[in-house]
């Protein structure tokens, strides 16, 4: 039996995430666990490194932004959200291996949403965190390739 309600929306967002062309560069998997909460499992490798041998800041941004974004979009069933601002705090260098980006909605339910995210290594060490704002777009989720298996 196919999922219904919130579960159907979560599975459709997970499909949308998997279908995004940018994710061909990042081995990752979105998991929506509850309203306003997301986890994205990433595999960091040398392709993501800067010249000094650790993950480049673009990788941190990608992981944190996605986790915060999907935490918010889990609460919106009709429209795609857009990132309007994101602040990063990078606290440790990130090397090769698995990392989880955990996103959590903080506030907002109409037009603008606020969420935070953190990156956690396989050993449980937090290496970065970020906070972002996201707003409703005019783009219908149902119109996007990947959403609901389209």
Automatic annotation (TrEMBL):
**GO terms of molecular function:** thiolester hydrolase activity
Reading the lineage from the top rank, the first entry is Bacteria
Q: What is this protein called?
A: Uncharacterized protein (TIGR00369 family)
Describe the location of the Thioesterase domain by residue ranges: 53-127
> What InterPro entries does the record point to?
HotDog_dom_sf, Thioestr_dom
């Amino acid at each position: 039996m196919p999922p219904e309600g919130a579960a159907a929306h979560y599975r459709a967002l997970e499909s949308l995430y998997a279908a995004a062309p940018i994710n061909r560069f990042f081995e990752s998997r979105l998991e929506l666990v509850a309203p306003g909460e997301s986890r994205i499992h990433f595999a960091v490798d040398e392709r993501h490194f800067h010249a000094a041998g650790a993950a480049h800041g673009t990788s941190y941004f990608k992981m944190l932004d996605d986790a915060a974004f999907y935490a918010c979009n889990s609460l919106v069933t009709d429209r795609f959200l857009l990132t309007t601002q994101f602040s990063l705090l990078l606290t440790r260098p990130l090397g090769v291996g698995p990392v989880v980006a955990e996103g959590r909605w903080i506030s907002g339910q109409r037009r603008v949403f606020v969420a935070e995210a953190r990156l956690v290594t396989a050993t449980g060490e937090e290496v970065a965190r970020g906070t972002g704002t996201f707003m409703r777009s005019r783009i219908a989720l149902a119109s996007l390739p990947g959403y609901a298996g389209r």
